[in-house]
Design goal:
This protein has two domains: 240 residues, Type I PLP-dependent aspartate aminotransferase-like (Major domain) (Aspartate Aminotransferase, domain 2), CATH 3.40.640.10; 120 residues, Alpha-Beta Complex (Aspartate Aminotransferase, domain 1), CATH 3.90.1150. It is 40% helix and 12% strand. It contains twelve helices and twelve strands. Helix 3 runs parallel beside helix 4. It is globular, with a radius of gyration of 21 Å. It binds pyridoxal-5'-phosphate (PLP).
Length: 378
């Protein structure tokens, strides 16, 4: 049996999404910028997709800029805030995805922006008092803090952070790659200026996402070339991927509560099974608690001679999970997030299990048995 519990890294493409994409590849191959009927057909598909996405998030379609995914959207938000919107300071956190933290460091080197890293409380929450004091320093600032951490499932209160930013005249970007289509968003009322989305985290295709940019913020592109996406993202649009993203989002929001309760039950089953099997099991970031990102469980196993091999041995058992984020899977260095949040313990193996609506109770039973076999062996 093969069990896929690495849905925070990526998800299987939904059959309905494939069904929506194939005719686009077969028939709607026109360049959306062409003025003839073949091109216009592709343009219509893109604009329909944009409207559908905007409706589900309650924002104006003109706020949605399609990109190649989350990494590009994160880059676009920070780079345009500095280049076009006069930001001279970035406030972010060491626990952010590398698409944010490395972009911020790069802007510090190349543009001389000030970079401040906000502290986290012991539970992984952003220290709002520290954020407040950093914002009080003044200077045109963009704050970039993710909604949910992709490794340890800590959820930040983006409403409170956004309000704090507004009160200080700062821009606010939040990476919602792990929460988009897993929670609902009302972008009309949520105090955010930029939001990042990536389709492959919710059963959409890889290589497509978008950046929401609040109306009124005038930004230009980060790559030179064509004037697609209103000159914010040059390059011929990936029509089939954009259609796939919109379809995946439509499916996710058509039964959000159903998906949430299904996945929450699987996570609870996993937590219960692990607690029954191991005396000293711990959950990094208190990711077992139900107010955390419900798709992710980060488990710290008791010290064991096979700790360093656990990921590999589970893979041999047919269970796909992760040792951190996708980019650090299998790496021995450990996770920058666990280190930043002080959850890292070199004696214990930390594994991330992440669930989707396609997982079943039988998957969890199988994974629990496989985990016990791995940790029973000496
Ligand atoms: N941000 C977060 C929180 C992520 O988990 C990921 C993917 O792992 C990304 C950004 C990057 O998204 P993409 O793979 O679409 O570039």
């Amino acid at each position: 049996m093969n069990v896929y519990l690495d849905n925070a890294a990526t998800t299987a493409v939904a059959p309905e999404v494939i069904e929506a994409m194939v005719p686009v590849l077969q028939e709607s191959f026109g360049n959306p910028s062409s003025s003839h009927a073949v091109g216009r057909k592709s343009r219509v598909l893109i604009e329909q997709s944009r409207r559908s996405v905007a409706k589900l998030l309650n924002c104006h379609p003109s706020c949605i800029y399609f990109t190649s995914g989350g990494t590009e959207a994160d880059n676009l938000a920070l780079r345009s805030a500095v280049r076009d919107l006069g930001c001279t300071r970035i406030i972010t956190s060491e626990a952010e995805h590398s698409a944010v933290i490395k972009t911020a460091q790069s802007l510090q080197r190349s543009n001389g922006v000030d970079l401040d890293l906000v502290d986290h409380l012991e539970n992984g929450q952003v220290d709002l008092n520290h954020l407040q004091s950093l914002l009080a320093k003044g200077g045109k600032t963009i704050v970039s803090l993710m909604h949910a951490n992709n490794e340890v499932a800590v959820l930040q209160d983006i409403e409170a952070i956004g309000k704090m930013c507004q009160n200080h005249g700062a821009l606010f970007h939040t990476d919602t790659v792990q929460t988009m289509c897993h929670y609902s968003f009302d972008l009309e009322s949520l105090p955010v200026d930029f939001i990042t989305c990536s389709a492959h985290k919710f059963h959409g295709p890889k290589g497509v996402g978008f950046l929401f940019i609040r109306k009124g913020l005038q930004v230009s592109g980060q790559i030179e070339g064509g004037s697609q996406e209103r000159a914010v993202r040059g390059g011929t649009e990936s029509t089939h991927n954009i259609v796939g993203l919109a379809k995946a989002m439509e499916l996710a929001y058509a039964d959000l509560e159903g998906h949430q309760s299904h996945v929450r039950a699987l996570k609870a089953q996993m937590v219960e099974g692990l607690r029954a099997a191991f005396e000293d099991i711990r959950f990094n970031g208190a990711s077992d608690e139900m107010d955390k990102l419900y798709t992710v469980l980060n488990v710290s196993f008791p010290p064991h001679p096979k700790s360093g091999m656990a990921l590999f041995l589970l893979d041999l058992e047919g269970v796909a999970c992760s040792g951190g984020s996708a980019c650090s899977s299998g790496a021995t260095l450990g996770s920058h997030v666990l280190r930043a949040l002080k959850f890292h313990d070199p004696k214990r193996a930390s594994l991330r299990f992440s669930f989707s609506r396609y997982n079943t109770q039988a998957d969890i039973d199988y994974a629990l048995n496989a985990i016990q076999r791995v940790f029973a062996s000496k």
